[in-house]
């Protein structure tokens, strides 16, 4: 807001007659509030993203959000008797999904095998061991609750309030709350959520084969990605004998996708699985650009995470032409913040 005021609302008439936004011309300076309101009303200005200097994609995103909220509301009002389109009851639909998830549920990683030789493997092994333990707890919770629900649906045991709530969630393609409590922040519907969980466990299974840091780590596929960033900082601090409190993560956007990485980074770690919303990454120019119409998100190339010593190198020295982009785990943002990535931009970072 301050940037807009500084740019447009100067205490002189230098902007008089200029088109501030499509359809609205700057009035003379010094008008009263009522006169300003009349000026805006007479312009015939229509409410749109461009009115507040935002990209047209904002309107598309808001529409999608409202559609999703409408569908969720309709599902909550659904009484659970019959689904006219499918002709199946909630119980029948849930029974099919339960069997499908039990077949797709990935195997548990054997922690006992992963602990072999951990003393000699460095800081990253502790991160992956914690990830393995969390995946075991989650898959164990899922499997036991599905077996219990399956028995309820068969009539072998009496249903409870918890199993009824779980049945309704599964029938409506939603992740049951008991799973969400043991899992990670996610906005995916149930089907995609199970596939995503399988991919996460697959990464851990691959790592447990040789206990080596992957060539490129799927950062968004970790339960607690912050712990991986801490491991990058710790590994560098130990190697260079830096105080950890003066070590911070710095990002560098590469020009490669994760399938093109041939070896682990000599300094730091390669990560992938990040997307940017509200802008796009121009891989040729290696900088941020405005989003293309109707392209709400853009996948990022592989990022190199490196640690720097803030006593030897000031992070502000590289921030002149870079936008300090907050990285979140979900599009709801909020408490899902992970770290801040420096992304080069030709436009003023305040834009």
Protein model, in words:
With 351 residues, this protein is of the alpha+beta class. It is built from 10 helices and 12 strands. Strands 3-5-10-4 form a 4-stranded mixed sheet. Strands 1-2 form a two-stranded antiparallel sheet. Strand 11 (322-328) and strand 12 form a beta hairpin. Helix 4 (90-104) runs antiparallel to helix 6, helix 4 (90-104) crosses helix 7 and helix 6 (124-154) crosses helix 9. The radius of gyration is 26 Å and the shape is flat.
Task: Determine the fraction of residues in helical runs and give it as a percent range.
Answer: 40-55%
Largest sheet: 4 strands, mixed
Global mean pLDDT? 84
Distance between the ends: 11 Å
What is the strand tally? 12
Rg from Cα: 26 Å
Low-confidence stretches: 1-5, 79-85
How are the strands ordered across the major sheet? Answer: 3-5-10-4
Percent strand: 15-25%
Order of helices and strands: HEEHHHHHHHHEHEEEEEEEEE
> Count of helices?
10
Write the layout of secondary structure elements.
Blueprint: H1 2-8, E1 19-21, E2 24-25, H2 33-42, H3 57-77, H4 90-104, H5 111-114, H6 124-154, H7 161-171, H8 177-182, H9 190-210, E3 216-218, H10 225-240, E4 247-253, E5 269-272, E6 275-277, E7 280-282, E8 287-289, E9 297-299, E10 303-309, E11 322-328, E12 337-344
Parallel strand pairs: 3-5
Antiparallel strand pairs: 1-2, 4-10, 5-10, 6-9, 7-8, 11-12
